[in-house]
Specification:
Keywords: Signal. Residues 1-38 form the signal peptide. InterPro entries: TAT_signal. It contains ten helices and two strands. The protein is mostly helical. α3 (47-58) crosses α5 and α5 (81-94) packs across α6. The chain is elongated.
Amino acid sequence: MNCEHDGSWNRRQFLTGFIGSGAALAALSMLGVPAAGAQPAAPAPPVRDTINGVLSFVVPGNDPYSQHQGVATDRPGGVTPDTAASLERTLDRALAIPLFGGVGVPLPGAAGVAVLLNIFAATADPGASNGPFAAPFANLDHAKKALVFEWLDTDPRFENFIVRFVVNSLPTLAAFAAFSEVSAFDPVERKTTGRPVGWDLSNYAGPSDGWDEVIGYYRGIDKVEA
């Protein structure tokens, strides 16, 4: 994809031109998504690998996705099964309509986001499909993941379309999920099942009925004059 443009294309021209490129067609075929006018393919896009690629980019940890991108830590980060599932549910509920309608990427929610990121990943690195993960985006190094987000965030051809909202909100939603309790939360019982990763990431001591410092009067002060 040529990222130097004058912003004069309309939406259909952009999608037709972009999805007609060799890298994009290869990515769509690999991801099980038909190009415009093609018959639907059976395989689903690698949603979980893509979402883990996003979570490791936003909140690196000691997981394989973070280690492969070249930016990792020595403790758990955003990549946990429950965190990924929570982010996928959020995207599915928030984006119930296909990102590109019936043109090129007729998928909503997390699947549509996965296709979008992986198409641009194939442009950032044509060899990204050969990595250890099913999703090209997850196979990118940290810098190239940032480049994908930069392209998506600055391309004027996405102005006034839902894609712009998706790109702007995705890192925020990923960070929110990583620092929340969803990594160790039972949605049926509505209680934590252990210590959430987000608590360790934020150095949160956990819930408390109170602190000794604020029981009774504070340092002998029993009233405050207005």
